[in-house]
């Protein structure tokens, strides 16, 4: 069989079908859409099934902790009567130390159920360690494919630490340099081994996070007799937000506002060898968050189950220095050493809380373990060694790849917002040449972008007018 890049890419549909035993074609509609809800329902698992599978694997049912001292600190910079209560879902308590264990538990369960001998995941993040840990519990072989090095062979410390964790759980780790070969190697490994594709973006990967939203809703109602006003989700590939929002809705929290938060890496190109080691965050940043929001099917499956614009009410950005600042504040004020990547949403929550009445509740829906290359000290030192200036100042003046700016005070930690319309327009530009969008297409787009058909028509007219 031909192993050239082009031929392997052409075999992607058949490789993926065999590696998931999921025929995505059955969900395709005429035109541009597909039946998203049917794809999710056909997984065969209820929310109760998912919860049972996770609990059997030491996953889920993590504590919801009120950050009283951090909330009090935020109120110092808010007007009287303002400064919402900040809570955090301590997902570091999961097996492998992050919320990704929820996703991995379902992928591994499905692989075992279907009789696969092993699993493969392409990830440089916490998901690799989660898949490796859950595969070990299930007695399955595991291969993790990472994009780790630049062309000089210098590895990002956070990714190297995650490789260490994967190997500690018995996984084989394939480390590659930045570039298009990652997906090529991933496909070849799936084809050569016949292993299961433990994709972040399959229905199993998303439904695993629905329990997170369910737990937030149920515990909030039990403790406070109401659902939280806001849940903030760190956004990269979109699955974290999608699953959490779906779980909240299934549990009755229909009016909880869902806010996406990412680290602002504007100006850095994620596929650039030069820029690869100029960033201090390897996930939860705009280099993933924006492209995967505006084109979710860029993932490793034909139709991604992570579709964040269906659920997102607001999208905010924070700078790298602010996340490091809030990571240290969490340790000093609350005795919780976590992150730093898991604290992206916490940085946003600290700023947003100051704009809300003090009786309102904001839930930050994840933490992650820290240590070794994942620790903020390692990240900051690595940036400094790469020529990035590290200083105190005004965070919103930070230039990714040029400097890291820590706020001199919590008063300077501010978020900025990306208008949702900008994201919606970027999404719709993929269809600017589809001149014959019918009513079914428009309905699909309105569901994808959580807006009305009339607004879709107006935005398409705007795009086509600009094209002229």
Structure write-up:
β7, α11 and β8 (257-263) form a beta-alpha-beta unit. 44% of the residues lie in helices and 14% in strands. It has a seven-stranded mixed β-sheet with strand order 1-2-10-7-8-9-13, with helices on both faces. It has a four-stranded parallel β-sheet with strand order 5-4-3-6, with helices on both faces. It is built from 19 helices and 13 strands. Among the domains are: 53-97 and 204-418, Rossmann fold (3-Layer(aba) Sandwich); 422-467. α6 (100-114) packs across α10. It has helices spanning 5-10, 12-20, 36-41, 47-55, 68-75, 100-114, 126-138, 157-168, 181-193, 203-224, 239-250, 273-276, 286-294, 320-334, 344-353, 376-385, 420-428, 439-448, 453-467, and strands at 64-66, 85-89, 118-122, 141-149, 172-177, 196-197, 230-234, 257-263, 314-318, 361-364, 389-393, 403-407, 416-418. The radius of gyration is 21 Å and the shape is globular. The protein has 468 residues and is an alpha/beta fold. This is 2-amino-4-oxopentanoate thiolase subunit OrtB. Its cofactor is pyridoxal 5'-phosphate. Its EC number is 2.3.1.263. Keywords: Acyltransferase, Pyridoxal phosphate, Transferase. InterPro entries: AKP_thiolase_beta, Cys_Synth/Cystath_Beta-Synth, TrpB-like_PALP, TrpB-like_PALP_sf.
